[in-house]
What does this fold into?
Amino acid sequence: MKKRSLIVFTMMILIVLLTMPLFAQGGGESTKLEEVVVGSKIDTEGALLGNMIVLLLEDASFSVVDKTQTGTTPIVRSAIIAGEIDIYPEYTGNAYYFFSGETEADIWKNFQAGYEKAAELDLQANNIVWLTPSPANNTWAIAVRRDLAQSESLQTLDDLARYINSGGEFKLAASEEFVSSEAALPSFEAGYGFSLTDDQLLVFAGGNTTLTEQAAASGQEGVNAAMAYGTDGQLAALGLAVLTDTKNIQPVYAPAPIIRAGLLERNPQIAEILKPVFESLDLETLQMLNSRIAVEGQSPRQVAQSYLQEKGFIQK
It folds into this structure.
């Protein structure tokens, strides 16, 4: 009896030892899900939204490769089409230029119609899905120093065209993308009937409006105007005024995560994870969060994490 009891006891010990890894997996840290490569544009808001996506997916136990601040629009766009990144935050208005000539321009000036058309065209052409957008409109804009706006009565882009065409002193700080992209400065010039020379431009290689707006605020190299975005949080603090686009030259630029369809099919929960977060990012909220980065000097990840924790979207 003693020998049999010893054998049974030994077998029980072996069973416990062999199954311990299984119990450990169930009671410890959850198994990581599929690897997801997250990218973003290099500007302040691109970094903010990209870090939000990173943190949300990490919190949901995905294995995340953080490639945020990947580059300018052409670079990050090429990366997702080539499969080098899986997801990044894009803007609906850019789809008008991605698929130039396929639709009427007025569609893109309507929030919902522009979003739906972007989603339709990108899925057909590139198997890319547009997820739930933010209700904000982060459109291209031109901001001038407030002292210039007051002295020359500049409130709209019509006023700016009049001022430039009459020989007014003007120099714009802008990114290379803003200067060269059909979506930005060229569309303003064509729509309002003015043209800037190379001497009237201070061009930065990156796309960060923090640099352009600080250059205007400080008068760097004679700059008195800056490329801006509608959701920039530092404009008031820097003493800059955004000029109204009375002719609605610009499309609506609603931020939305875009993702490779294959990844989403395998992990449909990603859409539901990101949906309530982007729905919460209205114009005032994005201005406030962007200000924490551009004015207060906090890191994009720090600002993203604090916001997601405050709103209960993540726990850690």
Summary: The chain has a mean pLDDT of 89.
